[in-house]
Design a protein that fits this description.
Elements (H helix, E strand, L loop, with lengths): L1 H17 L14 E3 L1 H9 L3 E4 L3 E2 L2 E3 L2 E3 L10 H7 L3 H6 L1 E2 L4 E3 L3 E4 L2 E4 L3 H8 L5 E5 L4 H12 L4 E5 L2 H7 L4 E2 L11
Parallel strand pairs: 1-11, 2-7, 2-10, 3-8, 10-11
Antiparallel strand pairs: 4-5, 6-12, 8-9
Pfam families: Rhodanese
Keywords: Signal
Organism: Arabidopsis thaliana (Mouse-ear cress)
Length: 188
């Protein structure tokens, strides 16, 4: 009877542990809250700040000539042209229209590929406090997810990732604003 009691106890524990709620975050992975664009619009209307984290090109040497890629400059090189449209033209075409919107690229394109903007945290910290309510978005929600994880792990308290990004925002026909201000790389 003693072994039967042990077996029943084991089965009971197995069933209990199997039905405990599971979380997708681990100790090393910060918990990220992703919201849809409907929730994002309501939060922005209530005073949240929107950070657009789309990519931008970093100045680099190419073909023995130093090319400084500024926010709205035209780039002749075919290699650069293939990359340029993913950020410069995205933001040129428009972004979420809200009271507080900042463009702070999380990733930069270099000849070696994408790299995290080394000034991202510094730039965000110059615009926002760690207790500010932030929503991060990009074109589709993938880059902003990484940036949201980074900010949460850096101590920012109320940060949300906008699922679907700018594409979902436009598909819902939410307000869009077009900026004509030139941003210089040094401002990043």
């Amino acid at each position: 009877m003693d072994s039967l009691h042990v077996l029943r106890s084991f089965l009971l524990l197995f069933i209990v542990f199997n039905h405990l709620p599971r979380t997708t975050t681990s100790m090393s992975e910060p918990k990220v809250i992703t919201i849809d664009v409907n929730q994002a619009q309501k939060l922005l209307d209530s005073g949240y700040t929107f950070l657009d984290v789309r990519l931008i090109l970093k100045p680099f040497r190419f073909s023995h000539a130093f090319i400084v890629v500024r926010y709205y400059c035209l780039v002749i090189s075919e290699i650069l042209r293939a990359v340029k449209h993913r950020t410069v033209e995205e933001f040129k075409k428009g972004h979420v229209d809200s009271e507080n919107v900042f463009n702070v690229p999380y990733w930069l394109y270099t000849p070696q590929g994408q790299e995290i903007n080394p000034n991202f945290l510094k730039h965000v910290s110059s615009l926002c406090n760690q207790t500010d309510h932030l929503i991060l978005g990009c074109k589709s929600g993938v880059r902003s997810l990484h940036a949201t994880k980074f900010l949460v792990s850096s101590g920012f308290k109320t940060v949300r990732n906008m699922d679907g990004g700018y594409i979902a925002w436009v598909n819902k026909r939410f307000p869009v604003k077009v900026e004509h201000k030139e941003l210089k790389y040094d401002e990043l």
